[in-house]
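Subject: Sanity check before I submit

Could someone independently write out the structure tokens for this chain? I want to compare against mine line by line before I put it in a report. The sequence has 320 residues.
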Amino acid sequence: MKFADAAVASLLRAAVAARMPAESKLTREGKLMFRTRNAEHALFERAAASCGAPLERTRHLLFAAALALAFAPVHGQSTPDKMILIPAGPFTMGSNEGPQDERPAHEVTLRAYELDRFPVTNAQFADFLNATANAIEVKPRLYDFDDPDARVHMRSERFVVDAGFENHPAVEVPWSAALAYCTWRGKRLPTEAEWEKAARGTDARHYPWGQATPERRHANYGTKYGGTTAVDTHPAGASPYGIREMAGNVWQWVSSAYRPYPYRADDGRENLDPGPVRSTRGGGHDSPAADITTSQRGRNLSRNPTAGHHNIGFRCARNG
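---
Independent answer below. Compare away.
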């Protein structure tokens, strides 16, 4: 059973070296790649290495433990910064059945672009703040640092996320700061049209997952004030392109000024100068089911673009 001994040691050495949240995947080459939660699992490695001739049961238990660690899902930690390509072509934007600001339904044709699979998380935004000189003093402000709903705070001269909120969507981020973050990452905010196509695809669906009435497995909605969840919590709510969290949890800033339809990118709404109220899409954790549709524009939402909000986050895009 030398194979089991070697496999255990190999798996655990890789796990300890990674020192990252547990996250497993099968690569295109068919190789198992994984990371483990923290270095305390080195105890297992030492146990395996010290057993020159371990009992059969010990070998199997250690091997099983290594596999369990490799595949254990961990919410509340860092999510990979993956982007998904949205192909060029037309789609139906808006709705003839929703509120007035969603009307009329109309065809919009877009070039190919990429969109973040997940909203930007608190951990990712903290990295941005730490990389920005004198972040607290920057004007316009980058974050509502003193807001009771803020989940990122300065501790020992570094910005640190409150424990358990690392992988929740970043909130209390003003529109201009969302723009600055995306620029820092070599990206940009999506337009309102780009956001909607990524959410609904080309079949004009009512929700990212289709026409079915929302359930808790689809999205985080209708819950308490401040009740965000980790961005990887609702795989059943993915859009046709595999984009996650396009309904509920947090509304999302887009680049576009909030103007009547039909949407036209050349009518001034994509001017990035400060001032206009910006559209917000997707609905939040404290939104009713009626406000988490793919065409909802947040008409009743408090969304001063110069301030952060407890239920508004964002994600980034870039040209395809």
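---
OP: Matches mine. For the report I'm noting this point. Residues 24 and 34 are 4 Å apart (CA to CA).
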